[in-house]
Amino acid sequence: MSADVILASEQGADVLKRLASPVSRRAYLILFALFSAGLCVLPLFVSGYIVTLTVEVMIAGVFASGINLLTGYTGLVSLGQAMFLGFGGYGIAIGTALLGWPLWISAPVTLVIVAAIAAPIGAICTRTRGVEFLLITLAFSQMFYGAAIKLRWTNGSDGMTGIPRPDLSLIGVSADNPTVFYYYVLAAAVFSLLMLWRIVTSPFGSVLVGIRENERRMLSMGYTVANYKIGSFVLAAVICGVAGILQSQYTYFVNPDAMSWQMSGEGVLMVIIGGANVVLGPFVGAAVFVVVKQALSMITEEYNLFFGIFFMLVVAFFRSGVLGSIGTLIGKRQ
Prior knowledge:
Elements: H1 3-16, H2 22-41, H3 48-73, H4 82-98, H5 103-125, H6 131-150, E1 160-161, H7 178-200, H8 203-213, H9 215-220, H10 225-251, E2 253-254, H11 261-274, H12 281-299, H13 303-317, H14 321-333
Antiparallel strand pairs: 1-2
Helix pairs in contact: 1-8, 3-7, 3-10, 3-11, 3-12, 4-5, 4-10, 5-10, 7-10, 8-10, 11-12, 11-14, 12-13
């Protein structure tokens, strides 16, 4: 083995060890437990408006988590993840409202289809990197956005309505109740977070971090980088698909706007604000994004201008995002 390969292997191994810090894991587990406990009791102490706003934050957080896996952990910045948000919404709409399937069949079938579509798209997109990757994902997203507007069975730009929430009559409650739906979304969000945490703390996740840090070194260590990148792309798509299902159930509606590049851009902003390559980062970013945007919209019609200024301040003072900066401070104090 040459000296260059040995050096690359040693440096790559250092990259893979960065996720193994017991202090970091313990801190984030405690933070996750507090985060979950707080959300469990939240409806007991706040108004219905806050409960509804929190539902929006959690759905946005799940969507941003899918982007975080691809962008924060694999180093692939995409402006096309909203297409999978739309696939999730349209899939559940077609399955339930159009084909008459029960929700418990439509949901898993939708996610399987999302994964099946994401695999060939990922195989094409991950052959590029940097700006080229961003643009080709954007192109795919806009292609499906146009298809959603033109196709008759998606009802064009009017979208699809009548998307059902889960039938919880067996336990004596209705998901149409905002508080009940809140706990349904909370359960889905916690499950998505745990799944994401398991992915990024596994050997697979460690390889993704290695690819983000230095793809050539991982290649020199013998990893099939292309397959790992496709795997990351597919898993990210499925998580975004879950968010799409939740979003369509929340509004009872889905239209092509769910697949727009602006939606993808908002997801990327959430990741940046909360902190990339931090599991809870997208949820913190989603909370800041939704709450600040909502507050500014009630103050002025030019809220996008002021939100842009706010975002620049966050990037200037919290370069690693809110949770990323906190994690850095914790690491320095150990």
